[in-house]
Write a structure and sequence with these properties.
The protein is globular. Strand 5 and strand 6 form a beta hairpin. By secondary structure, the protein is α+β, with helices and mostly antiparallel strands. The longest helix is centred in the last third of the chain and has 9 residues. It contains four helices and seven strands; from the N terminus they run βααββββββαα.
Protein backbone atom coordinates (compact mmCIF):
# COMPACT_ATOMS: atom_id res chain seq x y z
CA UNK A 1 0.00 0.00 0.00
CA UNK A 2 1.39 3.38 -0.99
CA UNK A 3 1.50 6.38 1.28
CA UNK A 4 -1.34 8.71 0.46
CA UNK A 5 -3.43 6.08 -1.30
CA UNK A 6 -7.25 6.16 -0.79
CA UNK A 7 -7.08 3.42 1.83
CA UNK A 8 -4.46 5.33 3.83
CA UNK A 9 -5.16 9.03 4.36
CA UNK A 10 -2.34 11.44 3.78
CA UNK A 11 -1.28 13.43 6.84
CA UNK A 12 -1.92 17.14 6.52
CA UNK A 13 0.40 19.62 8.18
CA UNK A 14 -1.11 21.20 11.25
CA UNK A 15 -2.05 24.83 10.82
CA UNK A 16 -0.67 27.24 13.39
CA UNK A 17 -3.22 28.41 15.96
CA UNK A 18 -4.93 31.69 15.08
CA UNK A 19 -3.38 34.82 16.49
CA UNK A 20 -5.12 36.31 19.50
CA UNK A 21 -4.45 40.00 19.04
CA UNK A 22 -5.68 42.85 21.20
CA UNK A 23 -5.81 46.59 20.60
CA UNK A 24 -2.95 48.46 22.24
CA UNK A 25 -2.40 52.11 23.08
CA UNK A 26 1.21 52.73 22.08
CA UNK A 27 1.29 55.89 24.19
CA UNK A 28 0.76 53.94 27.42
CA UNK A 29 1.95 50.41 26.63
CA UNK A 30 5.10 49.47 28.55
CA UNK A 31 7.60 48.26 25.99
CA UNK A 32 9.65 46.59 28.69
CA UNK A 33 13.34 46.04 28.13
CA UNK A 34 13.09 45.02 24.47
CA UNK A 35 11.51 47.95 22.60
CA UNK A 36 12.45 50.54 25.21
CA UNK A 37 16.15 49.64 25.30
CA UNK A 38 18.15 52.10 23.18
CA UNK A 39 20.61 49.26 22.42
CA UNK A 40 17.95 47.47 20.38
CA UNK A 41 16.84 50.66 18.67
CA UNK A 42 20.35 51.38 17.40
CA UNK A 43 21.56 47.87 16.56
CA UNK A 44 20.48 46.44 13.22
CA UNK A 45 20.20 42.66 12.76
CA UNK A 46 23.07 40.79 11.16
CA UNK A 47 20.82 38.13 9.60
CA UNK A 48 17.56 38.53 7.71
CA UNK A 49 15.50 36.30 10.05
CA UNK A 50 16.71 37.92 13.29
CA UNK A 51 14.16 39.76 15.43
CA UNK A 52 14.35 43.54 15.21
CA UNK A 53 12.22 45.38 17.80
CA UNK A 54 11.16 48.21 15.55
CA UNK A 55 8.16 50.53 15.95
CA UNK A 56 6.42 51.13 12.65
CA UNK A 57 3.85 53.76 11.68
CA UNK A 58 0.89 53.40 9.36
CA UNK A 59 2.15 54.02 5.83
CA UNK A 60 5.69 52.74 6.44
CA UNK A 61 7.15 50.60 3.67
CA UNK A 62 8.38 47.23 4.93
CA UNK A 63 9.60 43.79 3.94
CA UNK A 64 7.63 40.81 5.26
CA UNK A 65 8.29 37.09 5.23
CA UNK A 66 5.37 34.93 4.12
CA UNK A 67 4.59 31.51 5.57
CA UNK A 68 6.32 30.02 2.51
CA UNK A 69 9.54 31.82 3.48
CA UNK A 70 9.45 34.30 0.61
CA UNK A 71 10.04 38.00 1.33
CA UNK A 72 7.60 40.58 -0.05
CA UNK A 73 7.55 44.36 -0.17
CA UNK A 74 4.54 45.77 1.67
CA UNK A 75 3.00 48.70 3.49
CA UNK A 76 1.92 48.98 7.13
CA UNK A 77 -1.75 49.90 7.46
CA UNK A 78 -3.53 50.87 10.66
CA UNK A 79 -2.32 50.61 14.23
CA UNK A 80 -0.34 47.93 16.04
CA UNK A 81 -2.00 45.12 17.99
CA UNK A 82 -0.62 43.29 20.99
CA UNK A 83 -0.08 39.54 20.95
CA UNK A 84 2.20 36.63 21.78
CA UNK A 85 5.44 36.45 19.80
CA UNK A 86 8.19 33.84 19.99
CA UNK A 87 9.87 36.15 22.53
CA UNK A 88 6.82 36.88 24.66
CA UNK A 89 4.36 39.76 24.46
CA UNK A 90 4.96 42.03 21.50
CA UNK A 91 3.55 44.18 18.76
CA UNK A 92 1.99 42.97 15.50
CA UNK A 93 1.56 45.21 12.46
CA UNK A 94 -1.01 44.77 9.70
CA UNK A 95 0.68 44.80 6.29
CA UNK A 96 -0.73 44.82 2.78
CA UNK A 97 1.62 43.04 0.38
CA UNK A 98 1.67 41.47 -3.07
CA UNK A 99 -1.19 43.85 -4.04
CA UNK A 100 -3.90 41.77 -2.36
CA UNK A 101 -2.82 40.08 0.86
CA UNK A 102 -3.26 41.45 4.39
CA UNK A 103 -1.60 39.83 7.38
CA UNK A 104 -0.24 40.72 10.82
CA UNK A 105 3.53 40.43 11.30
CA UNK A 106 5.68 40.78 14.44
CA UNK A 107 9.17 42.30 14.49
CA UNK A 108 10.10 40.02 17.42
CA UNK A 109 9.35 37.00 15.21
CA UNK A 110 11.88 38.26 12.64
CA UNK A 111 9.20 38.36 9.93
CA UNK A 112 8.94 42.11 9.28
CA UNK A 113 11.69 44.63 8.60
CA UNK A 114 11.65 48.33 7.72
CA UNK A 115 12.46 49.12 4.08
CA UNK A 116 15.93 50.50 4.69
CA UNK A 117 19.26 50.26 2.93
CA UNK A 118 20.35 47.78 5.61
CA UNK A 119 17.31 45.52 5.08
CA UNK A 120 17.83 45.55 1.31
CA UNK A 121 21.46 44.54 1.87
CA UNK A 122 20.31 41.64 4.08
CA UNK A 123 17.86 40.57 1.35
CA UNK A 124 20.59 40.76 -1.27
CA UNK A 125 23.03 38.78 0.92
CA UNK A 126 20.35 36.10 1.39
CA UNK A 127 19.94 35.80 -2.39
CA UNK A 128 16.70 37.76 -2.82
CA UNK A 129 16.24 40.14 -5.71
CA UNK A 130 14.05 43.17 -5.03
CA UNK A 131 12.23 42.78 -8.36
CA UNK A 132 11.33 39.15 -7.44
CA UNK A 133 9.79 40.25 -4.16
CA UNK A 134 7.95 43.43 -5.14
Amino acid sequence: MEYGSPSRPQLMPRAPPPLKLQPVDLETWDDGAIYGDSFYAEVEPEELDEPWPYRFKSGDLVWVKSTSGRWYHGKVVGQAKLGRTIQGEGLFWLVVFSSKFRKYFAPLNGEIKPDTRHTRKLLEDAGWSWSESE
